[in-house]
């Protein structure tokens, strides 16, 4: 079984408290977190669909309704999860270090995790393929750049080959976006998608997901610490 996650938002001129009372409190059979657990709408492949609804303050005294839906499959194809990390480093400086100079900086700040990054083909743009050599339980992976948008601090890449994929995964794709955070800092949002081979059932436990998030956070925080220790770097 796997999980496919998507989110959407709807704005309204109605204040949050009033919208909450109508949309959630007084709505028949509808609660902020609920699941469809049985019925022909699930078909043959879905085990359940769960929803998480949140109503926040919006512009001009209105509200924003945010809904996250998780579709739990019986037959696996893609597993998706998301995580966020905050930093006191401004977005532009974090982008320069974390994305643009990652090949040089990451082996310096976390040599026990990543030993080296070597470009195999391409000029650093979309389609570039690199070999990442690890210092952990895995040996190496091939990493392909799928998208770069410096203006919006958005970066997409995929792991397309290597022992980290195991026997069941075809690839893992990542969508990274660095946004403005509180107090002049930044917020790094990452969406990870695990693509399986054929219809293999892949069990990625909560512990594995937590482990992946902790490693990503450790890398982000190591770069943050380096930038605080070297405040004159990456200011271009």
TrEMBL record:
BP GO terms, sorted: abscisic acid-activated signaling pathway; defense response
Entry GO terms, CC: cytoplasm; nucleus
A Pfam short name: Bet_v_1
PROSITE patterns: PATHOGENESIS_BETVI
GO terms of molecular function: abscisic acid binding; protein phosphatase inhibitor activity; signaling receptor activity
Similarity section: Belongs to the BetVI family.
Protein's name according to its UniProt entry: Bet v I/Major latex protein domain-containing protein
Species in which this protein is naturally found: Buddleja alternifolia
């Amino acid at each position: 079984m796997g999980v496919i996650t998507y989110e959407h938002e709807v704005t309204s001129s109605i204040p949050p408290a009033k919208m909450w009372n109508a949309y959630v409190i007084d709505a028949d059979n509808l609660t902020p977190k609920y699941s469809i657990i049985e019925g022909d709408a699930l078909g043959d492949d879905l085990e359940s669909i769960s929803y998480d609804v949140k109503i926040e303050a919006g512009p001009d005294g209105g509200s924003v309704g945010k809904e996250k839906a998780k579709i739990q499959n019986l037959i696996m194809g893609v597993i998706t999860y998301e995580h966020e990390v905050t930093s006191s480093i401004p977005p532009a400086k974090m982008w320069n270090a974390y994305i643009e100079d990652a090949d040089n900086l990451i082996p310096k700040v976390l040599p026990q995790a990543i030993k080296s990054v070597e470009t195999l083909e391409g000029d650093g743009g979309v389609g570039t393929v690199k070999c990442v050599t690890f210092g952990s339980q895995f040996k190496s992976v091939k990493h392909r750049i799928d998208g770069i948008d410096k203006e919006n601090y958005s970066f997409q890449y995929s792991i397309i080959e290597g022992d980290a994929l195991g026997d069941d995964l075809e690839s893992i794709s990542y969508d990274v976006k660095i946004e403005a955070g509180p107090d002049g800092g930044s917020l790094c949002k990452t969406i990870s998608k695990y693509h399986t081979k054929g219809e293999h059932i892949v069990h990625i436990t909560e512990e594995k997901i937590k482990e992946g998030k902790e490693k990503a956070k450790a890398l982000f925080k190591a770069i943050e610490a380096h930038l605080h220790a070297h405040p004159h770097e990456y200011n271009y």
